[in-house]
Please model this.
Amino acid sequence: MPASLSGSYRSLSGSSDVYRSTTVAGGGGNAAAGIIEGMKKAFSFMAGGTSKDQKLIERVAGGGPVVISSRTESSNSNRKMPASGVAEEAALLGTMPSDSMDDIELKNIQLQFPSARSLSRDDSSAQEEIVETDRGNLVVAVQGSRNKPAILTYHDLGLNYVSSFQAFFNYIDMRALLENFCVYHVNAPGQEEGAPTLPEDYIYPTMDELANQLSFVLTHFGLKQFIGFGVGAGANILARFALNNPNQVTALCLINCVSTQAGWIEWGYQKLNARHLRSKGMTQGVLDYLMWHHFGRNTEERNHDLVQVYKSYFERNVNPTNLALFIDSYVRRTDLNIQRELDPTKRKESATLKMPVMNITGSLSPHVDDTVTFNGRLDPTNSSWMKISDCGMVLEEQPGKVSEAFRLFLQGEGYVAPLSPTKMALFRKTSLEELLKSKLPNGGQWPTNVIHITENPISAVVC
Model:
């Protein structure tokens, strides 16, 4: 028996075999009667009997009694649960007869829903302008002060600047960084939100012609240089423009960039998708391919809500005819014809991107191998490859990691001063507008100027 019951084991016969069986052969009926009597007294003890002196006696086959335990009225009363405690526990467990749902009256219901993820345009975040080009008009959205260094973005298939970049550039860490920049979001022809269907006789620009349209954008806004930020098809377009105009691109951040021409499998899928989009609209096959193109496989298991938002967007907000033209142009793309120069003395003359390049992909993206091929054709001295874990669509699934990598990339190029932990905490704690309106403890305003180092002073001294 447990020691807490104050029991003691003592052999009256002097034998050390205290734990021997109580049903020894030859014990006769006395042993059985003793066991039954002991069990009765034990049950009487557990039920809280009123006897002042109760003893549980166990008789063994050849000897006298063994005293197991002795109870008194006071010890019993100390171990009993108070009556109020029993009633309270029974009420909580719902076992009391009087506890009925009939006594509960529902008077008010208040529902609270979390803010739904939306891919609609935020009118206060960017200002749209029409830019005329030799192959039609482009819609460009400007976000930020135009007297600051420019970041130019280009979106992927099935998206536009709103669905591709608006949430990322409104991310709290990016808002703190973009105080030093002005962002120009370029939409491919006919891909902007609410775009009308392009005419039947309209010949959609090729990938090289889409890249040449960026020259008209730079002229329209008076930009001499910019930092490119592209995803998928947009990354390919920015890379083409950078190859032809290296002096106008200071750095590139490319996500899921493909540097080769389309293979037979991709060509077949995309041709089938374009045919369905023209004849039937957004079919289930096209929708599944777009989801795979952006998120990879097993999307439902990673982020069900985000997947449903993009499925709804593709079904309701995409012009299928215009998307079919964009897909046709992308599937007919040519190779970038770039290669890495292994001889260090000839790297300046190599046919590859001359500016710094950050090449990003997600570990679950279907374009990982394409980014590895692209990385192998870049100059290793000014390029870096990053694979972000547990995501396919990196801007939506891992915006924090991408924003931190992009910030460090720009710091390495001398575009922004390092943000102190105090300043980053302030940006996370308050909104951007409130922070800009607030003042420093000494009464001054927060600095919003950009630091751009054009030459390394240490290397200049060494040389």
Remarks:
- The longest helix spans residues 28-46.
- The longest strand covers residues 136-143.
- Confidence is low (pLDDT under 50) at residues 1-28, 49-63, 66-80, 449-463.
- The chain is about 40% helix and 15% strand.
